[in-house]
Structures are given as C-alpha cells and as structure tokens.
C-alpha cells in the first residue's frame, strides 16, 4: 500500500524544481508495469485523520506500507502513534532530501516507528521502498 499525504496530489505541478515534473499517476503506471508480481494499492489524502484511518484499515492485513506523510511527517504525533498501533511494517519515504532543507523538515514523527527511511532520491525513493519489501 502506498499512502501519500498532503499536497502530493499536485505532484507534477507543485514546485517541480524540488519534486519533479511527473505526476504520481504517471509514475505509478510505470512502477506497476515494472513490478507485475506486486499488488500495489494507492491512497492519497490532504486530511490527517483520513491518513490515520487508512493506516488502521490496511495495517493488519497488508504486507507492507510505503508512507510519504509529507508535511504531517514533521507535525503529526497521531500518525506516529498510528504506525505504532498497527502490525504491517511501514517504510517512510520522501522525494526530497529533507535534511538538506529547512530545519523544521529535519524532525519526523514517523521515523522512530518506521522499519526504515528512504529519502532524497526523487520518485525513485518509492521504488527503492518496494525493493526493500521484496528483499
Ligand atoms: C516531502 C518533504 C516534506 O517536508 C514536504 O512537506 C512534502 C514532501 C517529500 O516527499 O520530499 O510535502 O515529504
């Protein structure tokens, strides 16, 4: 399950110098073709509670969750607690290298509860997360 947080629905249009010019749907189509052995579901929301609800919904039955909580990464104790509460392992991803950006992006409420963190490789961060589950 790939879960994207706020503003990631605007990928392709949003600050392309940081996040690239591909839409997430275009990227996902490529990935689905490349990994036919993997069943990939996708969910995006701009609403913190909806992201928590989705983690609860899939977090006891799916093999893995790839989560880019976007700005909520840096603010949401609720999302951090949700990851602690579920059984499915979560890999945290970010498109940009958050440590090379503003100080407030260096804090993550996701990382302490994640199986691992992959960041800074553009959309390839998601693909590396898929590979981590396959291995
Ligand atoms: C992001 C990094 C966050 O700091 C930012 O708020 C985002 C995207 C990334 O993928 O690089 O919206 O999670």
Descriptive account of the structure:
This protein has 135 residues and is α/β, with parallel strands linked by helices. Helices cover 34% and strands 14% of the residues. The chain is built from 5 helices and 5 strands, in the order βααβαβαββα. It has helices at residues 16-19, 24-34, 48-58, 77-85, 124-134; strands at residues 2-4, 42-44, 65-68, 90-94, 116-119. The protein has a 5-stranded parallel sheet, sandwiched between helices. The longest helix is centred in the N-terminal third of the chain and has 11 residues, at 24-34. The radius of gyration is 14 Å and the shape is globular. 1,3,4-trihydroxy-5-OXO-cyclohexanecarboxylic acid is lined by residues 7, 68, 70-71, 73, 94-96, 98, 105.
Mean pLDDT: 97
Topology order in helix (H) and strand (E) letters: EHHEHEHEEH
Q: Could you name the ranges where pLDDT drops below 50 across 5 or more consecutive residues?
A: none
Through-space gap between termini: 16 Å
Number of helices: 5
Strand runs, count: 5
List each distinct ligand once.
1,3,4-trihydroxy-5-OXO-cyclohexanecarboxylic acid
Q: What percent of residues adopt helix (DSSP H or I)?
A: 25-40%
What integer value in Å does the Rg equal?
A: 14 Å
Largest sheet: 5 strands, parallel
């Amino acid at each position: 399950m790939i879960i994207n947080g706020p503003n990631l629905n605007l990928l392709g249009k949003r600050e392309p110098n940081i996040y690239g010019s591909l839409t997430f749907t275009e990227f996902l189509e490529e990935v689905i073709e490349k990994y036919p052995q993997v069943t990939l579901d996708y969910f995006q929301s701009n609403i913190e509670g909806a992201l928590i609800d989705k983690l609860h919904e899939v977090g006891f039955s799916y093999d893995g969750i790839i989560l880019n909580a976007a700005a909520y990464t840096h603010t949401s104790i609720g999302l951090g607690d949700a990851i602690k509460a579920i059984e499915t392992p979560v890999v945290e991803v970010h498109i940009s290298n958050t440590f090379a950006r503003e100080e407030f992006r260096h804090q993550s409420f996701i990382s302490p509860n994640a199986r691992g963190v992959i960041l800074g490789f553009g959309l390839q961060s998601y693909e590396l997360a898929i590979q981590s589950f396959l291995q």
